[in-house]
Amino acid sequence: MLTIEIIQEETIDDEIAALMEKCLQTAAELEEVSGEVVVTLVDDERIHELNRQYRGVDRPTDVLSFAMNETGEGEPEIFVEEEELADFPNMLGDIIISVPRAKEQAEEYGHSLQREMGFLAVHGFLHLLGYDHGTAEEEKEMFGRQEEVLAKIGLTR
C-alpha cells in the first residue's frame, strides 16, 4: 500500500487529485513497492527555483523527484539497527509538479490535463524508484513502464 500526501500550492480539482493517487497506487502495485510519497503541486516560479537550486538547471521544468532511499556522493549515511527498521515507514520521496507547465504540455500534446498530471505523477514516481531516461535503453524501459501504468487506468493518448 502506498500512502500519498498531495500538497497543493497550485490548486487542481479533486477529480485530478484522485486520478493522480490512482496512478501512483497502480504504479506501486505493478512495481510491488509500498511506502510514503509526498506530491507537491507548484507554479513555474517555484519549480524553476528548485530546478536551479538542486539540479543547477536555470529554467522551469514539469516534474522533479527527490528520492529518499537514494544514496549519493556527499549525502550523510543514516545508521539504523536492522530490528528498528520495522518502526520506520518506507519514505520513497517527494515529487514536485508544475501545474502551469502540465497545462501547457497537455495542450501542446493534444491530450487532457488529467492524462498529463497522471503521466507526470507516474514519471516522478518511477524516478523515485531508480528509473531514469539518460540512455535510449533506459528511456525505452521507463517510458514503456509509464505507458503500462497509464493504459491500465485508461489514460491513453
**Average pLDDT over all residues:** 90
Please give the radius of gyration in angstroms.
16 Å
Distance between the termini: 28 Å
CATH superfamily name? Answer: Metalloproteases ("zincins"), catalytic domain
Strand content: 15-25%
SSE class: alpha/beta
Tally the beta strands: 4
What's the CATH C level?
A: Alpha Beta
Overview of the structural elements:
With 157 residues, this protein is α/β, with parallel strands linked by helices. The chain has a single domain (2-75, 82-153), classed as 3-Layer(aba) Sandwich (Collagenase (Catalytic Domain)). It has five helices and four strands, in the order E-H-E-H-E-E-H-H-H. A four-stranded mixed beta sheet has the order 1-2-4-3. Strand 1 (2-8), helix 1 and strand 2 form a beta-alpha-beta unit. Helix 1 packs parallel to helix 4.
